[in-house]
Amino acid sequence: MLLLLTLPSVFHPAPREPAPAPTSRAASLREDLVEGIRWLGHHRDIRDLTIAVGVISAMDAAWFAVFVLYVVEILHQRPALYGVLLAVAALGGIATGAAGTRLTRRLGPWPSLLLAGLTMAATQTTLGFTSNVIIAAVMLFASSGAFALFNMTAATMQQRLIPAGLLGRVTSLYGTVAGGTEALGAIGGGVLAAAAGIRAPMLAGAVPIAAVSIVLAWRHRRSAPA
Predict the structure, then answer these.
(1) How far apart are CA 119 and CA 111, in angstroms?
(2) Which residue pairs from 100-105 have beta carbons closer than 8 angstroms and sit at least 24 positions apart in sequence?
(3) What is the pLDDT of residue 226?
(4) How far is residue 109's CA from residue 114's CA, in Å, rounded to a whole number?
(5) What pLDDT sits at residue 12?
(6) Alpha-carbon distance 187 to 131, whole Å?
(7) How far apart are the first and last CA of the chain?
(8) Spatial separation of the C-alpha atoms in residues 167 and 156, rounded to whole Å
(9) What element of type H or E holds 176?
(10) For residue 5, what pLDDT is reported?
């Protein structure tokens, strides 16, 4: 104990670095947002993925906004069947949740996104032409499964590619794009259905979904698996 007392500065508190100047919460949020946008703008993979999800969310919401009218006026079913068809669609998402990880590992992320996008486009096109409730149910099952595959693959890519310190900011921007375009797509789908008929949002949305999926896969055809 006496030897310890002879050691210099042992009991003195360690020097502290000067605290940074306080900043307002608004300024801090603004800086965080700018940093997230800057990173997103320079990261090709996540930037392209964000653009793609914006297009797909808008086109998917456009037809889903009028789906209850589709059930009554195109499929000629009672409104109660709307809930049954939603349950069938949910089963498609559950099925993909069970098998989607293995599929993505086998195909790779970009081919998985392409498969999901083309499946969504094909199912929307079929829904736009059919009046058969059984075919519509099968298409809803496949469409929901494809949407789940896209979201699962995109979420995995974000977790792997976005730095931990920016993950919250960039995924929030991604979610804002997805949610914002979904709202705009729903509004546009209602306007289009009123002007051109209930089938129009389904048929009009299929081409942009297929196009953005093909472009996404083509731009990243030589990318290493994420």
Answers:
(1) 12
(2) 100/148, 100/149, 100/152, 100/153, 101/152, 103/149, 104/149, 104/152, 104/153, 104/156
(3) 52
(4) 9
(5) 52
(6) 24
(7) 58
(8) 12
(9) helix 167-196
(10) 47
Q: Which two tokens stand for residue 89?
A: 């669609």
Q: Are 140 and 130 in contact (CB under 8 A)?
A: no
User: Distance (Å, rounded) from C-alpha 118 to C-alpha 142?
Assistant: 11
Residue spans of the chain under pLDDT 50: 1-5, 7, 10-11
Q: Are 106 and 223 in contact (CB under 8 A)?
A: no
pLDDT for residue 4: 42
Rg (CA), the chain: 25
Packed helices 133-161 and 81-107: angle between N→C axes, nearest 10 degrees: 40
Q: Two tokens at 56?
A: 């797909």
Residue 180: in which H helix or E strand, if any?
Answer: helix 167-196
28: tokens are 């801090």
Angstrom distance (rounded) from CA 9 to CA 78: 84
So what's the pLDDT on residue 221? 81
Structure confidence at residue 104 (pLDDT): 87
| Predicted model pTM | 0.83
CB 90 within 8 A of CB 140: no
Give the type of residue at 166.
L
Where do we find the tokens 């259905």? 193
CB 74 within 8 A of CB 121: no
The pLDDT value recorded for residue 98 is 80
